[in-house]
Each structure stands twice: as C-alpha cells, then as structure tokens.
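Q: Predict the assembly, please.
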Amino acid sequence: MEFRIDRSSGLPAYLQLVRQVREALRLGWLGPGDRLPTVRDVVARSGVNANTVLKAYRELELSGLVEARQGSGTFIKAGLGSTDPEVMAALRARLAEWVREAREAGLDIEDIDALVRSVLAADEDGNQITAGDGVAVL
Amino acid sequence: MITAVEPVDRTAIAVRAQALGKRYRNKWALRECTFDLPAGRVAALVGANGAGKTTLMTVLAGLLDADEGSAGATGRVAFVSQEKPVYRHFSAADMLRLGAHLNVVWDEARARRWLARFEIPLDKACGKLSGGQQAQVAFALAIGSRPSVLMLDEPLANLDPLARREVTAELLSEVDETGMTVLLSTHVVAELAGVADYLLLLAHGRLLAGGDLDELLGRHVSYTGPRSDVPPALGDVVEARHTGNQSTFLVELPEGQPRPVVAGQWTERPLTLEDYVLAQLEATRKGARA
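A: Predicted assembly structure:
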C-alpha cells in the first residue's frame, strides 16, 4: 500500500498513516496476514520521516490491529468491520430511510453533513471519558 | 535490514545549546538560546528573515564562536551553507576526491549514489552545472562524510517542487539508514508535515518554541464561534481574531491536562504547522508576547 500525507491537514502525520491503514482494512485492500510496507519503503516512496512511520505502526500495534514479528516485519492481525453483516445492512437501510426523510424536509448534502457531524460530536463528548487519548480519528 | 516496531532511543542528545548568544558589533543576532535536540530527529529550524537561523547553524557547526553561552554537537558535524559551495573549476568527481582527502571518514559509495540518483554528470565542471545540480554536489559531499549531525541551511531553496520532494525523500532515507540527526532551516513550512518531527522556532534571535512537533501542535487548538472576548477553553491565547459576530482563538492548552470539551456554538480545529508558525510569528511582530 502507498501512504500519502495531506500537508494541509491539521491531523498529525502519524495519525494520517494510521487512518490510511484502517481505511485500507475497511475497504478490503488489506486483510489479516498481510504485511505492511517496511519503514524504509515508506520513507523512500512517500517522503515520510521514519520516526513518523514507526509512531504510526506502534499506534496500530497498541490498538491490536497489527503485530510486529521479529525479523520479518509488521503484519495485519485483525480485520476491521467485524460487525455482523446483517446488522450492518439493517443500519444502512435505516440510514438510507433517514436520508430520504431529510431530503424531503429540504436539507441538502451540506445540511445533512453538518447535522451528522454535530450528532457525532455530541456523542463523542458524551463518551470522552472512555475514549483513550490519540485514538479519536477525525 | 528489517522493520521492527521498537522505540527509538530518544535519550541521547545530538545537539545542545545553552544560553547561546552571538553578537555582530553591538547587535545581538542570537540571545539566550537554549535547547536539546535528541539524536535521530529531523528538526526544522523556522523563522522570519533575519531571525538568526543562519547564525545559529553557523555557531552550532563550530564555524563561528559564540559570544556567550555554549553549543555542542556529538560526533561529526557536516554543514551545507545556503550558498551550496562547490569549486567552479572542479568536476563532481574532483569534488568527491577532495571530500575523500578532507574528511576523516568518507563513504565514497554513498556520495556517488546520491549523485547518480539525481543524474549529476561526474565529469562536468561544477561552474557549468545548474544551481540545483551544484546543490546536489554539495549534498553528496555532506552525505559522503557520514555525519552524525547534518545541518542544512535552506536546502530546498532553488530546487523545483519535484526535486524538493525527491531530495526530502532521499534525505529521510539516509536518516533512516544511518541514524544521523538532521537540522534544516527552511521557509517552506507547508512542506514539513511528516518530514520534520522536531521544531525550533526563532524570532528576533530568540527561541520562541522548541520541541516534538506532534506534541507542540497537539497542545494548540483553534476555536471558532460567536463573538467573544475570551476563548471557550482555558489556556494562553496566541492569537485572537474578531470579525463581525464571529471570533477565532488560537489557544495553547495547559500542559498535562485532559483536552477540554467545548460545546454549543464553538467548533474546534486542529492546527497545521503553518497555522502555528504564522500565528507565533505574527504574535511576536505585534510585540504581544514581548
């Protein structure tokens, strides 16, 4: 996989890498058993500092997504989206229904986006005590 | 070499400055400059023109004597000045021979690899090379000397955007392979994310901020909300802007405390390095922090 840094983002570079691995997992580009590129490869290809890559890999390891195997590299341990496919489908259907309602009420995409964000933010504030430091991915 | 997720030794100090001061006649170019740069870091030295960046590097490299305080670097130091000096009548191959003679430690293969990577002709006189190519010869010489600490004054100036990206990637690969520490001054702050992991911010010859980049940025937040005289969270206000019925605050949060939760009409946004540097420099210009 190829990493890229969005330099106009306020998200720390290492968290951008963490997020890209999670995204690749979510989209199925990476799965359990796959090896992440070596730090050296990421440095050479993406022009990212080795300390930044190490920090990202460490963060992924702490969250249990990858494991470092002595001498052979860093491997994906677990997949994301372990939620039951049926539950996912049901949630999606209800969300689609909700979006239709919002549309009928005259909301455009930006309105909907703002509304979803504010609800997520309120939910996050409520959960802040349980959420660990540095795992909140914006 | 293999990739292992293991902590990098952050305990060793590569460059140390203590109450460092340098004066040109009656004018202090650098004053009370104190910091420890841990080994293996890539530090960006940032500041306005005339802030003292070149003076600081020159003193740290041992090419200028300090007027007060002390400076030191562990191991071998290589310094490439802004002018990227090469001898006009020497070819790149001649420059490498010179490097082999002048340096105690010399890695010919490493220097040649750098030149090959950037397709620099070895037999052409440096005076006939472009400015960018001359810079590559100067970099190759510095890399070939296998420094523990590499100091580069405006290494990216005069390079086109593609070359900037390639030089950066190559440099970071060298850091990864050799474990050297890099201190580079630059104006191209927007390109530093993911490249530098340490920041030294100079203004008017004084060190305004220094430390781990992620930590520094993590302690700062930008809040936007309804017009107000005070920000929605406690902390030092670095910058406050008011327009019509809206206020924006850049706040430095108190150290060692959980991130405050702001609710209601306030929105918060993490800072980019550029936001941070510009706000800090703006604040010193206004004399708000003097």
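Chain A touches chain B at residues 5, 7-14, 16, 36, 38-40, 43-52, 54-55, 57-58, 61, 66, 68, 70-74, 122, 125, 128, 138 (CB under 8 Å). Residues 124 and 136 of chain A are 9 Å apart (CA to CA).
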